[in-house]
Amino acid sequence: MSFFPSALETLIDKFAMLPGIGKKSAQRLAFFVLSLPEGEAEAFAAAIMDARSSVRCCSVCHNLTDTDICPICSAAKRDKTTVCVVAEPRDVLSFERGREYQGVYHVLHGVLSPMSRVGPDDLKISELVSRVAAGGVEEVIMAMNPDTEGEATAMYISRLLKPFGVRVTRLAYGIPVGSNLEFTDDATLLRALEGRVEM
């Protein structure tokens, strides 16, 4: 038996589809939306529809944009010889917040995952290979999460890029700044030792 009107139940179900949102959070979001003045609720719905219709993938790097080529790819000051390969568009934001990386990106839109039936054809891997094959790229940085799927994806891509003679690197893994060695797991400590640099 439902405690809410069917339209409200549907709204709750739609919010519950969002990643990281459970049933209770979905209910809170639905009640919040219902409490909005009509104009704000319409603006909220219009913003969703506008984003769905205007946001697309950059024709070069496949990051999200509202133009054919994103602002990063079209910026004259970016180093086009260095390409940082990331799994998702949100990963680009993580790098851009630091304001240190001046190269360009390539967004795969996922990682290889046999368990989830995600293979090479489901990702933007062939587009990356074509981009490198066209020339002008000197280094490709693999910036996937240091988990099994991220590592498998990085290894697969590095093998595909080997014939082109580009330098393929990966992010260094190690101990986070401000953490304590006592609480560092063995795998992280090993990676930190392997990736040590001269002072």
Primary descriptors:
four-stranded parallel beta sheet; two-stranded antiparallel ribbon; single chain
Brief description of this entry?
The chain has 199 residues and is of the alpha/beta class. Helix content is 44%, strand content 13%.
Descriptive notes:
44% of the residues lie in helices and 13% in strands. The protein has eight helices and six strands; from the N terminus they run αααββαβαβαβαβα. The chain has a four-stranded parallel beta sheet. β3, α5 and β4 (103-107) form a beta-alpha-beta unit. The longest helix is centred in the first third of the chain and has 17 residues, at 38-54. The chain is globular. The mean pLDDT is 88.
Topology readout:
Layout: H1 6-16, H2 23-35, H3 38-54, E1 56-57, E2 64-65, H4 71-74, E3 79-86, H5 89-98, E4 103-107, H6 125-133, E5 139-142, H7 148-161, E6 167-170, H8 186-194
Parallel strand pairs: 3-4, 3-5, 5-6
Antiparallel strand pairs: 1-2
Helix pairs in contact: 1-2
